Amino acid sequence: MLAAERGAAANTLTAYRRDLEQAEEAVGALERASRAEIASLAKLWAPLAPSSVARKSSALRQFYAFLADDGLREDDPSASLPRPATRRPLPRILSHAEVEALFARAEEEAESGKADAVRMLALIEMLYGSGLRATELVSLPLAAVPRDAPFINITGKGGQQRMVPVSTRARGALSRWLEVRVGGGRHLFPSRSGHLSRVRLFQLVKGLAARTGIDPAKVSPHVLRHAFATHLLEGGADLRVLQLLLGHADIATTQIYTHVDAARLVALVNERHPLAAKARRL
Fold it and tell me: Which of 147, 174, 197, 282 is most buried, judging by how many CB atoms fall within 10 Å of its CB?
């Protein structure tokens, strides 16, 4: 149902399946579990972060809603599950200087002409230049490479289609990659198992950060996507346009970047305002 009717992404399906299996290990067959047994999960989840508890509760609520809709169960024991208050954390971002340093290092290494180095440059150009999610990037088909129009068609979460711009720099990096690309298959970034994995992409990005002299803990494919969004917003991009570029179904998700920009301004005032300097002297 989640896949066919709601178009849930593969990662969402995997997470919900894992949550349901773990709950079943704790209370037995979920379709027959009593309200008290479902309520007992709250104690089991107590050590977890509120966001994890919220996801697990959501998985069970949707499961029991499905059973009710299909007439497989008359009552809904999920009402006894906890509803933790979650607060969306502000995304980590990189400064303009850090992004420039990453690209300078990647471009320097790509000058060697080695396939891995040229691929690395193409990967970060697409992460920061087009704001792609890690899964969207690694699963790009070879046919997606733009020829005439400076756009690329992306299939995002839930199978939603969108068009994202590909900068002149990124198109140049992709062209260089295609000249040295090794391996066959239909994917732009192939591997022996099909295409480059998300885990390997994370490793590559963190490795580049370390070679640049930036703490690898600060950098990931998603952080580059956040930097793309935040820096566009700083430059005056419209929030609705940003929503379309990022592929957010709800603009409330995109609005988190307005808070990031506000937080940056507060930090700037605290650091640069004359009264702030006076307070430090005191």
Answer: 174
